[in-house]
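Async update (no meeting this week)

Hi team, since we skipped the sync, here's where things stand on the single-chain job. The sequence we agreed to prioritize is pasted below, unchanged from the tracker. I ran it this morning and attached the output directly underneath so nobody has to dig for it. Comments welcome in thread, and please keep replies under the output.
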Amino acid sequence: MTSAPFAKRRLNPRFPFFADAEATLPDGTSVRTQLAEISCQGCYLGALAPISVGTEIRLRIWHHITSCEIEAKVIYLHSGGGLGIFGMGVVFEKMSGQDRTVVDAWLGDLAATRAAASRPSPRN
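Output:
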């Protein structure tokens, strides 16, 4: 399944975001992952083991000194193209207010960085 239909339906911007994460499956199995992108409604993960589309997970994300836990669901899966890494689109389903604050802070920093990078440099 390709991500093109999802790209057309995105309502919120995604930002490049590199963080370590762990997905806990319903049976208690843990899968180590890394985030490559994040938005306020979901993220894109890379992992050595695929997680099936439709699987509900508990996602724990660590970035610098902050972390959060989010109930989420895998909505699409890309094979690694022979590289052994699987990409997964994940939608956030439930998170506490504290965890939302953490995600919003990350997104605020990313938006500010993007805005600063897009400003024209002053001419001397």
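Quick observations from my side:
Residues 16-109 form a domain with the Thrombin, subunit H fold (CATH 2.40.10.220).
The chain has a mean pLDDT of 89.
Reply here if anything looks off.
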